[in-house]
Amino acid sequence: MHAYCRVPSSGQSSPSAPSSPRFRSKPAPRFPAPKTLPQHLASQFLALLLRRQGIFLFAPLIYISAVLFYINTLDFHNFPPPHYAPPGSVYRSPQLYANLRPQMDSDNSNADAISTIWRNSYKGGEWRPCIDESSRGLPESNGYIYIEANGGLNQQRTSICNAVAVAGYLNATLIIPHFHFHSIWRDPSKFSDIYDEEFFVKTLVNDVRVVDKVPGLIMERFDHNMTNVYNFRIKALSSVSYYRGTVLPKMVEEQIIRISPFANRLSFDAPPAVQRLRCLANYEALRFSNPILSLGQTLVARMKDRSANNSGKYISVHLRFEEDMVAFSCCIYDGGDKEKIDMDAARERGWRGKFTKRGKVIHPGAIRINGKCPLTPLEVGLMLRGMGFGKSTSIYLASGKIYDSERHMKPLLEMFPLLQTKEMLTSHEELAPFQNYSSRMAAIDYTVCLHSEVFVTTQGGNFPHFLLGHRRFLYGGHSRTIRPDKRKLALLYDNPNIGWKSFKRQMLNVRAHSDSKGIEIKRPSDSVYSVPCPDCMRRSNKTEVLKSSLAT
User: Fold this and answer.
1) What is the 3-state secondary structure (H, E, C) of 21-46?
2) Measured on CA atoms in the order 241, 242, 246, 249, is the torsion positive or negative?
3) Which residues cross the membrane (predicted)?
């Protein structure tokens, strides 16, 4: 007996069972004989459609073709844009200001905000600087380290402090860092132009050897050309074990190594001895050069004189609304066609082709909702007035050249007529030696911001990163800094119909949050340059606090 197989075993076809009359194909209808070729083709096509299953094959194709043909006839460019925009996606701050200004001007309850803003800052106790001094002698050096510090003022500061930490950890001699000339900052300043080099060397004398040049006998091996020295390309945030296991043997072998670039090439999390050297370099050894320090202190004194009605207390604001910052953000404001032309040109100048790559999609509304848009001078003014700072409050504005400054600065000056900049506080002769050097100008701003009662950061970056830590180091562990949540601000500023009382309540909540976050303890992913507790500071006990208060 043979097993049944559904497929014939030979080339002969097996007879199939007759189909049920119910499912038999009906004969195709007959049409009159066509007289022309088009008629003939049409009749054949129609006959095919009417055959069994033919309609199921061709009907979807015909439908899709018709839809595509219809879509191609449409002009999408003439379609009106949707009327709905997600909350926080549109810049409506000018309308908000126009609505709130009458109520804002009539509010007289905010005269003492600058005196009371940090009233509840020290519930957990104050901290004080505590960087242990070294009494041990330095053993024989294992070699020389030459680093190139890239970026602007505070990115270079990162490189310097990390270089001190690495050199001390490897028992190496540090050559005074070389500042890399950058096409954006275009500042040819050397180390001694920005910092007090003699003071730097003297402060580190018991911890790290620092020299200004390499001995000639060593450089002879490299034809007195530093580019011939072996250069390490070190990954960002490398651990100290990498330096010990990879960098140190090569340095001992070659007697000198070069690391370029060097910013952020050392992990935030490091052994206490390495963190101590970072603290020592940043908070004690790095002091601005005498010309910068002198002018900076002069501006601090002038700001205090102009703030006599508030006991010499003033606010400093780091405002990032320069043309390149606005262009890079890809945010849209209220400048219309002129703004678009300016921003497109600025993006092409600074980042040729980066924003016009094929397939690149930019969503300005989403950028604003995510809190990534730079705050305008108007928005900063609204925020500070809502927090309780009145017209009599003195403000120091640390900024480059504001984009479309006359238009954008007008409302801020209406809200705070005592606002000052370094250009307004100095004569042309005083500022002239620094004006063509972006890092030196930034160092002057840094000094004035460091000594303000309140510091306001609006965009992030290395400048506020270092100021946060430096202010904590000076002011008992509290940064005395307002750091707004710009995602919340985007939603709030997109509501032109909000009342002044409700707006002010929201802003006071932002202010209180900044106060509560003033003192923070460093986590492994934090930097000692912004969070110095507890690596660079320790908590004061009650006796020390009492002695300090009696002394003052």
Assistant:
1) HHHCCCCCCCCCCCCCHHHHHHHHHH
2) negative
3) 54-71
Indicate the residue type of 258. R
Q: Give Cα 491 to chain centroid, integer Å.
A: 20
pLDDT at 359: 86
Tell me if 472 sits within 8 A of 519, measured CB to CB: yes
Asked if the peptide bond before residue 433 counts as cis, ω within 30 degrees of 0, the response is no
Yes or no: say if 237 and 262 are a contact pair by the CB < 8 Å rule. Answer: no
Average pLDDT over residues 417-428: 97
pLDDT, one tens digit per residue, over 193-210 is: 999 999 999 999 999 999
Asked if residue 39 has pLDDT above 80, the reply is no
pLDDT at residue 518 tops 70: yes
Instruction: Give Cα separations from 481 to 149, 270, 352, 455, 487 (angstroms).
Output: 28, 27, 36, 5, 18
β partners of residue 539: 127
Q: How far apart are CA 218 and CA 18, in angstroms?
A: 102
φ, ψ of residue 316 to 5 degrees: the values are -115, 140
Lowest mean pLDDT among 40-49, 284-293, 383-392, 435-444: 40-49
Q: What is the mean pLDDT of residues 519-524?
A: 93
When pLDDT is cut at 50, 70 and 90, the band that residue 42 belongs to is: low
β partners of residue 195? 288
**Beta sheet of 454-457, edge-to-edge order:** 419-420, 395-398, 315-318, 454-457, 481-482
Q: How far is CA 118 from CA 24, 112, 123, 545, in A?
A: 92, 12, 11, 17
H-assigned helices in 170-269: 191-194, 197-203, 216-219, 240-242, 248-254
Nearest to 394 by CA among 413, 374, 375: 413
Q: Is 302 exposed, middle or buried (0-12, 13-18, 19+ CB in 10 A)?
A: middle
